[in-house]
Specification:
single chain; mainly alpha; Arc Repressor Mutant, subunit A; two-stranded antiparallel ribbon; 4 strands
Length: 119
């Protein structure tokens, strides 16, 4: 975020992550949906991103998501394993996946300590 002007009663800011990360409008749309709603299928992202970018097809959405996972500068999204009963795979923010893995490890160690009390 960058300050744009500070001449009135309130300072005005402009979001700059698009420029800082060299993202296209389609990539911004996909990332915004993932930030707001968590893990989503490509179809859900296509359907929910119309105000930011109108994806023309599911294939276009999948290409954008794949580009976000394969970025040379570091992945911004990750493709999750297919869940039982779902025909599409979910995508999530890369940081969200790491946070969930860490949370699982913390829960495992807390459960191990709890279990040890009864041995």
């Amino acid at each position: 975020m960058r300050m744009v002007e500070d001449t009135g009663r309130a300072a005005k800011y402009r979001e700059t992550f698009k420029e800082e990360l060299a993202l296209s409008q389609k990539e911004v749309a996909a990332l915004c949906i993932l930030m707001l709603r968590g893990a989503q299928t490509p179809g859900e992202i296509k359907g929910r991103s119309g105000r930011i970018y109108n994806f023309q097809s599911l294939e276009e959405t999948e290409e954008v998501l794949q580009a976000l996972t394969d970025r040379a500068e570091g992945a911004l999204a990750s493709k999750l394993e297919r869940q039982t009963g779902m025909k599409e795979r979910l995508f999530s923010l890369e940081g969200e996946l790491e946070r969930l893995k860490l949370e699982i490890e913390e829960l495992k160690s807390a459960f191990a300590r709890f279990k040890k009390q009864f041995e």
